[in-house]
Amino acid sequence: MTQNRLCILGCGNLGTPILTGLLNSPNPTQFTHYTACISSAASESRLNTLFAAHIATGKLSIARSTPSIADAIQHSSVILLAVDPSQVTSLLLAVDPSQVTSLLLSSPSIASAFHLPPPNDSTEKGKLVISVIAGLSTTSLSSLLSPTPSPSQSTNASIPTPEHELHILRALPTIHAQISHSHTAIQLPPSPSDPPFPPTHLETATSLFSAIGTTTLVHEHHMAATTAVSGSTPAFWAVIVDAMVDAAVAVGLPRGMAQEQVYRSMAGSAAMFLAGWKTGEVRDMGTSPEGCTIGGIMVLEEMGVRGAVGRAVRESVTIAREMGREQDRGQGGGRHVNDTRRV
Questions:
Q1: Which pTM does this prediction carry?
Q2: Residues in domain Pyrroline-5-carboxylate reductase catalytic N-terminal (predicted)?
């Protein structure tokens, strides 16, 4: 059935973990078939190897040619847009998008497919497009996907009509989708909106991301901060944990033992915080007068670790906000926002 098809456009660093999480999720999803749309032979080979078992059962198909991608988009009621932000930036800046041949969205037939109703679909709700592209607002994406038929096409029956409007949601899953532990922020649709946003679409998005972890609904003005606080911090944790493991090895622990001890300490601490323990309570429980823990904490404070971590988070949020402003101005490829940061 058309309603049970999900098309994932772009399977890179984020699209692949999401697809992996959905295919391997212990929680049932509403989708019986998935199509992964990619643009390179290397990606096709990687996905064919990674998902061989699911392809063999017919649960997943790979689309790379323009006709097959357009067909997958038209036959799906839900499209997950996970292309690289730089690809979207290049497309937004292109004078003639048809000349940007390397991009998944550059073909007119692919762009039109978003607005064509699936065969035998009488719901007329319009397709749901869920974007997980960092820094790209729903306003920019709506403009990008707006149909612009040429005069010669104006009388063509295949040109979309208003009843086939797109409904766009923005979501920010984390890389933990790979193991069904993503905490996905879903942007609340505008209210009121034109056309009206079907409540069932928000339910669909929530159900989809619940299959790969937990979800939370976020207002638009919090999305830039969420991009960094939720999306960037896994890499921050990796740097901190790596430093702890290296230090443990330096004082004599075998690396494997050090890794397990540090990882489990981190996971246990997170579990306590999620259970309601305050950070100060956990810190105080582990410290005693003249003990090793308070000695280590004093070094962290003397070296300004608290301020450095806070600055890293704030810098990531600043860059996320600047990315959004650049995209909305159509200047995303004009400069690299990190190059303009002041030390």
A1: 0.80
A2: 6-105
